[in-house]
Amino acid sequence: MSIENELQTVEGLRAELARSQQQVADMAAAQEEFLRAVSHDLRAPLRHVTSYGALVREVLGDLPPEVAQGAEVQEALGFLATMDQSARRMGLMIDGLQALVRASRAPLRLQPVPLADAIAQARATLAPAEAGRAVQWRVDADLPMLHADPLLLQELLTQLLGNALKFTRHAVAPCITLAADVSPAGQVAFTLQDNGVGFDPVRAGALFGVFQRLHRETEFDGVGAGLALCRAIALRHGATVTATAAPGEGCTVRVVWPSPAHAGQEP
Asked: Taking the model in full, what pTM does it have?
């Protein structure tokens, strides 16, 4: 092949790569716009459901006592309670979608962040969830530095620590352990381990999906958006996050963070 043909081949490959990159960017922008529109446009119907449900409840409350205490009215009030609960849950799901959009598209401001400080800030945010509980924390004394966006890292840690607190709620002696090690190449792996309820490892593949739950809502609150958000944040940084567990034996989350030279590059 002549040099001229080789140059044409290279230029053709570059053009094809540019088209592919543009297609990916267009798809990402379209997805963001879709999620933003869905998140915004669903708010008004939800407000109508919750506000009119309250009005119906008031109307039923104004009925004569002998009617208000009747079986039909009490049944209607039960329906209204379920409707209100479902509407509020949907509102939380919309919040989860918006958080995913922000985490996926926000500018990535990478800088050195002490992991110990980020964990301390996450624990401070979660103080209300820990209030009144005797949770034992075992955190390595010498945690490394991460090259990360401080706000996104804070969100990731808040979600992970929040889950550890939530799922150790019924443990007799709740214990949360956080350790880290640094490879010679500068890659950081940190693990978060708890002694909570754990989950069935057969279903682990769905763990980081949007709105995926491995426990009944009556047992633990949440809509299943937190770990999906963690995965999105990890991917933005070129990190990976995985979880292993067994029923009744707690859960271990492992986050592998890239070295400064590779931070921000998707794995």
From this structure: 0.76
